[in-house]
């Protein structure tokens, strides 16, 4: 899934974990529009806000940051939590964060589809650009037999997940069926990769693509570093309080 390390598709209606560190990667929250209520978000950069249904929050942890998220009382969050790898040259960079509200995201729509351009670009439309990795995120719904076309750039990895319904993806003349709850990953090194998404019945899907890093890495929980030595160092830095805190 390069540059993705992990994707967690979740619903949450109560606090599940406390404040926790990240380093060497970006922690990305993609809220779906059917989320209910508010998702409280804090980080050691001093940001504190409530994410609304459809919002995005991108924490590029770099050399290290502390993060916490939890539904407000009475809320039910439906979202993705995505770990996006950083190249070795950025793993020690200063942390930064990006909030994109759902109200500002471009929407591509016809009678066949409605696709939110959460980040990046598609079909000549430009959305907000990711802080790192050239990432595009599409959150789409298709009508029965509706089709949507998107072209991933060369040297990108692509990850597609069917949230509801059965999705068909045509890649270079070959069709792949993805039932609800399943995912597929694609990679194209030499040239742009045209993708055709088609719904077998109404479908809700999400697609993430980004620049493939093609570097070895070591993941240990919320840390994604280039080697074991860096993992040990960042764990010590966290224990020493050097990754910041949430007061």
Name its key features.
247 residues; Pirin_N_dom; mainly beta; Pirin family protein; single chain; RmlC-like_jellyroll; Pirin; 1 helix; globular; eight-stranded antiparallel sheet
The Cα radius of gyration reads 18 Å
In terms of quaternary structure, the protein is single chain
First-to-last CA distance: 35 Å
H/I helix tally? 1
SSE class: mainly beta
Q: Characterize the main sheet.
A: 8 strands, antiparallel
Number of strands: 21
Low-confidence stretches: none
Order of helices and strands: EEEEEEEEEEEEEEEEEEEEEH
Helix content bin? under 10%
What would the principal axes of the Cα set say about the shape?
globular
Query: Mean pLDDT across all residues, rounded?
Result: 95
Q: What fraction of the residues are assigned to beta strands by DSSP?
A: over 45%
């Amino acid at each position: 899934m390069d540059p993705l390390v992990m994707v967690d598709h979740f619903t949450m209606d109560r606090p599940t974990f406390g404040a926790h560190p990240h380093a060497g990667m970006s922690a990305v929250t993609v809220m779906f529009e059917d989320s209910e209520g508010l998702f409280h978000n804090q980080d050691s950069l001093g940001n504190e806000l409530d994410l609304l249904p459809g919002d995005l929050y991108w924490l590029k942890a770099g050399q290290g940051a502390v993060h916490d998220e939890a539904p407000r009382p009475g809320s039910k969050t439906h979202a993705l939590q995505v770990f996006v790898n950083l190249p070795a040259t950025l793993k020690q960079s200063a942390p930064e964060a990006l909030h994109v509200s759902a109200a500002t995201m471009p929407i591509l729509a016809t009678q066949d589809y409605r696709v939110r351009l959460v980040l990046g670009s598609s079909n000549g439309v430009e959305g907000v650009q990711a802080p790192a990795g050239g990432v595009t995120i599409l959150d789409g719904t298709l009508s029965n037999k509706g089709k949507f076309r998107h072209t991933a750039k060369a040297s990108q990895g692509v990850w597609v997940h069917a949230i509801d319904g059965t999705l068909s993806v045509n890649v270079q003349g070959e069709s792949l069926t993805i039932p609800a709850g399943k995912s597929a990953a694609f990679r194209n090194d030499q040239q742009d990769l045209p993708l055709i998404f088609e719904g077998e019945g109404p479908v809700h899907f999400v697609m993430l693509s980004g620049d493939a890093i093609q570097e070895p890495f070591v993941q240990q929980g919320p840390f994604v570093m280039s080697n074991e030595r860096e993992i040990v160092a960042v764990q010590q830095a966290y224990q020493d309080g050097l990754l910041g805190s949430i007061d």
